[in-house]
Every structure is written in structure tokens, then in C-alpha cells.
């Protein structure tokens, strides 16, 4: 029996779970164990070849060594002939027990990472739609609590299952639970804040996404097996469970959807008074708060003309063009965001910790840049964010021309990381700005419809991100160049966006905004 020891590059990727609790929904989503971390493709292994027939090849004068693959072993026949036999069994010599070893998917490692990540992204798509529809009958806080308990259960089960199909199904359910928390948490933040505080909160909401990415290497670096990674992530979620009693509910939802008027007012008053007490603003609470809320409830329950998806596209041609641009920009940015994080594994296992930290820091810096542009360049913020994405995308595309250059390894790795981190920062900047300021593009009554349409459309296209990373099998530069071209396309779409002129608020809106400011300014 002929044996052969082989090693290849790793596959570390990303993605996989008071008022700090809604923030932690994004943290838990990024903190979910990614498909490529537990499924490392870099273990050292000994191959036992099949004894079936194989094709004997002869070495030509131009080729001194045969092509090697980690699924095949070379058997020499004389001095100038060899046969490539497929491995039928692997004996692993590494200390880390990965999902690749658990499910015996060595020869399908890259596809396994893409397929596992696909189910995570599919869960985010389904979870976003389901959470939005459930908010018609369940409060955001109830959906948030459902998400965290389901996430805990799925994380525990994923560490126990021994079947690959069941593992992918549980990963999809875990992503659905994450999206329940993300959607409901964002709804709560959008309701308990107002004005510039609301915009700033929604922009920095993505920072917890980056924080989970930064902390994930520390959790997984010393884990002896993939099961320990899932266990560590599950135990970290207990912090969010501890914060549940301090998680506020949406006062607007309680006021509008609670059937009994008196109960609705009592619940809303309780939420607002608790917020005012926590923030030391009890002296600003009006003595006529219950009467004001009763009047506001009556106006909120008045029949309003329904806004359907087709109504978004029935305006002027210019506004339709803006809608097309924002759908295109958000879709490309979400694809690139996921794709670049998975692309990090192309730089090798020995550099994964530093590279993953760099990507997380780049994403966080992008969020702060979006905050600066929004508050200081309000009218031209779209053009600045889009222009930054275009410039960075062009710089990243240079890697295609430098791929064939002969340079020291340290220079090549540094240059590759720089060309991946800069687009990640630009994507985080533009994406967080679009998600926070999406309502500025349409009238007030169409904002929720546009938000649901743009995010759902983007998540549909996000499903392709994991498979675009398979281009690295041809060349890592090809995969990175493809993502950089998408960054340029998204930047062009962002540059086309224009903020609508501010509308006069309807009668009674001052009362509502005043109560929001009492709660969380």
C-alpha cells in the first residue's frame, strides 16, 4: 500500500449567531461559527489509494513533476512513468478535528464551505421575510426573545449532529433565528430614537456585526475541534439571555396593535416612563401623556390607503431610476460583504487571525466613516460614499495585473490583504448608510415598503456570494477582482441617489417625536 502525506492552505471564513440587548443581535449573528472555520481544508492527512485500475502516464521532457492533488496519490512505475490513484481513505495527522473530517468531505472541501454558507444566507433571507410578517401579530420584543431561544437550541444541536444534511438544515434555522433578532432589534431602535440619534444608532448598528467578527478568531483559535467552537459560541449567547429583562419593546407597536385601548396606553406609558427614569428625564414628561397617547392611537388606527410594492414604481421616471439604483447598490454591497470575508481564507492558515481581525477593523472603520459623512455632508453623502467605493474598487482590481508578478511572499500577502480590506471598508460605509437612510429616498408612507423590497432583493442576490468564492480555484486574484468590480458597480449606483426634500410633518407628529426624544436622547 502506498501512502502520501499532503497539506494545503486553510479555509477560515466568516459567517455562520438595557438597550444593549438589541445591539447584540448583530453581534450574535456574526458570532455564529462559519462554515469554513470548523470545516478547515488544511489538515495534514495520509491518503490510502484505491486499488482500482488507474491510468499510467509518462513524464514528458517539459514536465519534471506530475500535478498533485490532495484527493489523489502518485504511484511510480519505473523512472519515467506514474499513475494517479484516487484516495479511498484518509488518516488525519492534525490535532484539530474539523467538519471536513467529521463528514469525510476532503475532496469537496471548497464546495462544502460554499454549500454550508449558502444555507446560512438562505436562512437570513427567510428569517427577514418571516420576521417582518410576524410583526403584524407579535411585538418586536416577542420576536427577539423567540430568536434568541431558537438560536441557542439550534447551536446546541449543531454541535451534536453527525449528518451533513441535518447540519445544513440546522445552520439554516440558526440563521433564521439570527435574522429574527436583527430585524426586531432594528425595529426597536428605529422606534425608540428619533432625528439624528436614530440615524446614528442605525449606522453604528453594523459595528456589532464587525465586533463579532473581531472576537471570533479568539474563540476559535485554540479550539481542539469544531464541536468546541459551537459550544463556545453557544455559551457566549447566554450574555444576551441575561440582558433580556432590560430589552425594551416598541412603544409604537404596543400603542397600535394592542386590542384594548386602555391596556395599550398603559403599556406604552410604562415603556416611556421607564425610559425617562433611566435617562434622568422624568421632569420632561408631560402630565397629559396618557391623553396625548390616546389621541395618537386614534390617529394611528384611522384607515389609511394601503401602499403596495407597485406604488413605488409609479412616480416620476427620475424617482424610478433612484429606486433601481438603490436596489442594485445594496445587492452588490451585500454580495461583496459576504464574499470578501470568505475570501480571507485564500491568504493561508498561518495568517488567518491577523487577516480576520483586519477585515473586522476595516468594517468598523467603514461604519464610522458613514457616520461622519452622514452628519457632515448630509446632501452629498451619497456621492462621497459611492465615489469612495469606486476608487477603492479600482485599486483592488489592480491585483489581477499583479498576480503574475514575482515578489516576496510577505509583500504579496500584505498587498492582497490591503486590496481586500479597503473594499470591505468602502462596502461597510455605503451599506450602513443605505440601510440607515433608506427612508430619505421616498415619501414617508412608502418607507417600510421600500425597506422590505430593497433588503429582500439584496438578500436574494447575496445567496450567490458563497459560490463566487469558488473562483479562487482558478486564481485568488480572479475572485478578488470579481468582488472589486461589484464594488465599483455598487458605488455607481450609490452616486445616483439623491435625498428628497424634507416634508412638513402631519398634525400630531410633534407629539410622537417628542415622546421618542423623551425616551432615548
Automatic annotation (TrEMBL):
Q: Which GO terms describe its cellular component?
A: membrane
Q: Name one GO molecular function term.
A: transmembrane transporter activity
Q: Which UniProt keywords apply?
A: Membrane, Transmembrane, Transmembrane helix
Tell me the compartments it is located in. Answer: Membrane
The protein's topology relative to the membrane is: Multi-pass membrane protein
Q: Which residues cross the membrane?
A: 119-136, 143-161, 173-190, 202-220, 226-246, 320-344, 356-375, 382-403, 415-438, 477-498
Chief location category: membrane
Q: Record's InterPro entries?
A: MFS, MFS_trans_sf
PANTHER family, per the entry: SOLUTE CARRIER FAMILY 22 MEMBER
UniProt protein name: LP02637p
Lineage per the UniProt record: Eukaryota, Metazoa, Ecdysozoa, Arthropoda, Hexapoda
